[in-house]
Amino acid sequence: MILDNVGGMDSKVSTISQYMYNYIIIDDSFRELKTLFLDMAKDEMKHLNILMTLALTLNMNPRWWTCLNDQCCYWSPSYLNYSRQITNIIINALEMEYKMINKLLYQVNIIDDPKIISILNQIIYDNKKHITLLKKWETKLVR
């Protein structure tokens, strides 16, 4: 479960990579939006560090992979959405944030360790802030 947050399809590695791609391809006329994606990528890097450290603490190998029933699959750049249309970029970013929140909420409900729950809740809180910021851009550009 924790490893899937690190290197699964809907993971922090995916989000960081997607946000860095978005930062690079968004035109400089949208400087504030570019900066938003860079700042959110930095937040996601902090989350990745926390989750990889947690995995290591739990005696897992914190590679960029996900494991289920002793079958491990490495993270792939094919998980990303390589759209260059600004509206699709924002919609995709919102979808990524919602997916991560839903995944973490599910984990909070089935994990018994209060320390892990606290870590996941902090990440959920940060992701909700990202949604608020992205929604402002969605209102400006998509609707």
UniProtKB/TrEMBL annotation:
Where would I find the Rubrerythrin diiron-binding domain in this sequence? 19-136
Q: Name one GO molecular function term.
A: metal ion binding
Which chain positions lie within coiled-coil regions?
none
> Which stretches are transmembrane?
none
Going by the entry's taxonomy, the superkingdom of the source organism is recorded as Bacteria
Database matches in InterPro entries: Ferritin-like (IPR012347), Ferritin-like_SF (IPR009078), Rr_diiron-bd_dom (IPR003251)
Against Pfam families, the record matches this protein to: Rubrerythrin (PF02915)
| Name of the molecule in the record | Rubrerythrin family protein
Source organism per entry reads: Thomasclavelia spiroformis
